Amino acid sequence: MNDTMDTLDEKANGSPSMEIDEIVSVRSHEAFAAKHMPDLGQDVKDFQVFTWRLDNWKKLDKKLTSPEFECGGHKWRILLFPFGNSNAPPNDTVSVYLDYAEPKKAPEGWHACAQFALVISNIHDPTVFTVSHAHHRFIAEECDWGFTRFSELRKLFNTQEGQLRPTIENESADISVFVRVLEDPTGVLWHNFVNYDSKKETGFVGLKNQGATCYMNSLLQSLFCTRYFRKAVFQIPTEDDLPTESVSLALQRVFYHLQTSDQPVGTTELTKSFGWKSLDSFLQHDVQEFNRVLQDKLESKMKGTKAEGAIAKLFVGKMKSYIKCVNVEYESSRTEEFNDIQLNVKGMRNLYESFKDYVAVENMDGENKYQAEGFGLQDAKKGIIFESFPPVLHLQLKRFEYDIQRDAMVKINDRHEFPFEIDLGEFLDANADRSKPWKYKLTGVLVHSGDLHGGHYFALIKPDRETRWLKFDDDRVTPVTDKEVLEENYGGEPLNSSPPTAQRNQVRAMKRFTNAYMLVYIRESAMDEVLAPFTEEDTPPHLKRRLDEERLQIEAKKREREEQHLFLTAKVITDETFSRHEGFDLATFDEKNWPPSDLPSFRVLKQETYSVFKSRVAQHFNYPENQIRLWVLVNRQNKTVRPDTAIPENESTLTVEVIRNNMAARQNDLRLYLDVITDPSKPEPSPQSIMVFLKHFDTSKQNLLGAGKVYMPRTCKVGDLVPIINERMRWTPGTPLKLYEEIKPGMIELMKPKLSFAQSEIQDGDVICFQVELPEKEIHDLESQGLHSNPIHFYDFIQNRVMIIFRPKYDDPDHDHPEFSLVLSKKQNYDTMSTKAGEYLRHDPIKLRFTTTHANNANAKSVLKRSLNQNLAEIMTPYFTASAVILYEKLDVSIVELETKRSLKVIWTGIHNKEEGTFPFLLPKTSSVHDLADNLAKQVTLSPSGSGKIRIFEISRDGKNQKEFTGSEMIGNIPDPVDLYAEEIPREELEADDADKVIGVFHFSRELTRAHGVPFKFVVKRGEKFCDTKKRLQARLGVSDKDIAKYRFALIQASTFKQPSYIEDDDTIYEHQFAPEDVLGLDHIDKSGRAKAGVAEKAIVIRG
């Protein structure tokens, strides 16, 4: 039985409705169903009622099933537990379910969506009953559904308040089930999506969400389905590009995977190619801005290729803004291109009204007459008309607007309808080309569900004329109905919101926040070209080749992982690897603080015999088989790893796994030493001899490296090694040496030369380290330089060594700010670290500032204080690895001084509001902003006849106003981080009198939320026509006549939802009653790269 019932009981309105209205008899089937089964908004395929009479209730079996009945082409029955299902206390409740009869006989993959009400009623009076309703998708795994706690038994047996008889009377009752089998046109109604396969069900796959990239996913799917666009992207040459650095290649790869993969596709490569670090992609951005930036990027990549012009051809239309006189022949107009159209939602019932509003004509008469050149003041009409629409029309519905009362952006959830088809002919200029109709078909709806601060994006797309509408919701693609495309995304209240049930209310409350914010329409006459079928030839062969190779590699790796349990890894130490090893033992395996040695490794089948394996090893190292023998390394009790015994050669059935299990227990892989027998004809070393490994500590090079091995009889004295070593090292015979035994880390002991190896407890695989004996003076000199004079000190350094990776804090690594690493000891302190880093960077260590980083992502954590002089072990916590990342800054000043001073950067915009440079300052924290301005004045060039005065300011969050300092603020109190700007105050402003107005001016590009550049102040003169104001603005900005011609000027009122009102040459803006927040906006293309998108949101930048 389904335990889900418990949770359903509360939801399913088990209790009779509280409304004081007619009680409907169970036998009035239609009326009863209408009252107790809410309309779920789905079409009903079949409706049946089945009643089952039961007597002698108390003698019934624990579990009963009714006779079968048919509904909607399926067989059903009632499943009853008269005294409760086992998971409720016995004899306490009744459990009753609707059961799908004989699910095993149903065709594979069957399902049925049913809404049902289960009723127990009195056999004499059908108005006495208990009812509960639910709905469910019946599938093989969930073929019964209903109520474990349908009702308490005592309530059924006793007469309830307001009724004349009990439900179960004289142990008899009717059990009825009302079943509506619903149409499921999409096949996914109430689907739980366990094991759902998008590719199989729809032919498409989804995109994985990286955190908050669903806004990007919905747009990418829409662009992918615009096949002409996909073909153009595939035409960009990318053979030599890297996917994480080239947007074109990364997008091609995403598109190719969407075409060929049967699993959801990742976008990490793509966002990396945008130059986004993980954080950027987790900010929800505005889709329109993302679309615009992506298309600009691709357009520049398409220049000079077969794809050149594709984006303009698909998405660019033209509109004309005009002022036309009524009584004289005069018109002033300008034509502009657009990639998308922003339409108002507020106050508009549907898309048609939004278009009407866009081209609405404003009458200029009365006091608002138009100054027409050569005709004086005239009545005129002002407006916008379209000259052409592009084949693919992107319509942005303005669901997000600024609300002055709340001083914030808000989401508008009003109802706004849009059709499957729209004729845009009436919004075109009279001279437009009408050789083909301007009829458009809806092919995409991008939806936002939620409020301003978050929520979720998905896309509804009709990929071509034949394919049905599909919902692309991140990694899942499902079919949808027409109603889900239109009605459910209009926003506002659903039209038929009648059922008053709790369930319906939940559905309704949710709907209000889910609505369309971008529509994609394709011109009907262009559809066959824009959505032309995609062929094999449309995919670049180099891309296919590259991705097929990668797929094979992934599959091979997957196979390797799956077969991993059949293999083990054998790592082989040779005399050559030993001679390069600097550390404990013969190689590093799993030391906490140091990377493992790079050793020759073999992947070996566990069942491979030793003789086969040995011949592979011999072949690999180019030795005859009889010249090598392999020793197994074991983990000794004292935590060292040493060769222990040679593998026996005479057991032909010995397998690699048996060797590992018997000779090297407690190890996952096999660690071996390759012992080369130089002359197999000579007798083997006697059983009484031992194999000893030698290491040389070189004081001049300060290193400790392997120096091969020797076989020594146990009875020999340790001192007998000295002549052998001198000969091997080609030193003068008789050179005095000191010998040390490497017992284990932290335990290195000087050996007594007169004792035998047996007395010194030396065994196979032990390590003896030697150094040339030094005179006292030399030892003293080495130690005074901080160097190691003997192996004991050096081993201690090795035991505590760590790799510190130094990275520049603010710059990408370059010649002056390299990334580098140093090996230091955990016992060394801050001063030693800064000295060594200073030596590497050739920079005074007192002028280096270091910042620790977080172990998991290497982001900056906290600035290290020199005064604490911590050792590296303290600095490195909680890094428990071999390396830590520390960020450095090269300063022009000592860090001691920094502790009493404030470091600030000021961006200088001069007299012409252009960013001329950034100036860093380090001033006492008690300095005032006036002092900062005085210091800045010494570094910048002021205009010769200017005011000589500097203003320092911040920019308001929305990018529209300056936030000026008074000058007396202490710089130590300015919150960090801060962006400071400074400009030369124009004479005109200083000399302005009471009759003049000083207003704020800011730059934006088409949308008010797209502020860019730096806002400034400007003087407005009484009675001055705007054509003259514009000349003064041009002089203030220092821009050419050609550039100023591209600017549009608008009054931005803080107090309205209105679009900016654009200013004409003969307007006098002085006459506007300026509220404190009202500003003049300069609408022109952003060339500064300093966009401030929306309120306190970073602009989207795509680099790759």
TrEMBL record:
<dbReference type="GO" id="GO:0004843">
    <property type="term" value="F:cysteine-type deubiquitinase activity"/>
</dbReference>
<dbReference type="GO" id="GO:0005829">
    <property type="term" value="C:cytosol"/>
</dbReference>
<keyword id="KW-0539">Nucleus</keyword>
<dbReference type="Pfam" id="PF22486">
    <property type="entry name" value="MATH_2"/>
</dbReference>
<dbReference type="InterPro" id="IPR028889">
    <property type="entry name" value="USP"/>
</dbReference>
<keyword id="KW-0645">Protease</keyword>
<feature type="domain" description="USP">
    <location>
        <begin position="205"/>
        <end position="524"/>
    </location>
</feature>
<dbReference type="InterPro" id="IPR001394">
    <property type="entry name" value="Peptidase_C19_UCH"/>
</dbReference>
<comment type="similarity">
    <text>Belongs to the peptidase C19 family.</text>
</comment>
<dbReference type="GO" id="GO:0031647">
    <property type="term" value="P:regulation of protein stability"/>
</dbReference>
<dbReference type="Pfam" id="PF00443">
    <property type="entry name" value="UCH"/>
</dbReference>
<keyword id="KW-0378">Hydrolase</keyword>
<dbReference type="InterPro" id="IPR002083">
    <property type="entry name" value="MATH/TRAF_dom"/>
</dbReference>
<dbReference type="GO" id="GO:0005634">
    <property type="term" value="C:nucleus"/>
</dbReference>
<dbReference type="InterPro" id="IPR038765">
    <property type="entry name" value="Papain-like_cys_pep_sf"/>
</dbReference>
<dbReference type="InterPro" id="IPR018200">
    <property type="entry name" value="USP_CS"/>
</dbReference>
<dbReference type="InterPro" id="IPR050164">
    <property type="entry name" value="Peptidase_C19"/>
</dbReference>
<feature type="domain" description="MATH">
    <location>
        <begin position="47"/>
        <end position="179"/>
    </location>
</feature>
<keyword id="KW-0833">Ubl conjugation pathway</keyword>
<dbReference type="InterPro" id="IPR029346">
    <property type="entry name" value="USP_C"/>
</dbReference>
<dbReference type="GO" id="GO:0016579">
    <property type="term" value="P:protein deubiquitination"/>
</dbReference>
<dbReference type="GO" id="GO:0006508">
    <property type="term" value="P:proteolysis"/>
</dbReference>
<dbReference type="InterPro" id="IPR008974">
    <property type="entry name" value="TRAF-like"/>
</dbReference>
<dbReference type="InterPro" id="IPR024729">
    <property type="entry name" value="USP7_ICP0-binding_dom"/>
</dbReference>
<dbReference type="GO" id="GO:0140492">
    <property type="term" value="F:metal-dependent deubiquitinase activity"/>
</dbReference>
<keyword id="KW-0788">Thiol protease</keyword>
<dbReference type="Pfam" id="PF14533">
    <property type="entry name" value="USP7_C2"/>
</dbReference>
<protein>
    <recommendedName>
        <fullName>ubiquitinyl hydrolase 1</fullName>
        <ecNumber>3.4.19.12</ecNumber>
    </recommendedName>
</protein>
<dbReference type="Pfam" id="PF12436">
    <property type="entry name" value="USP7_ICP0_bdg"/>
</dbReference>
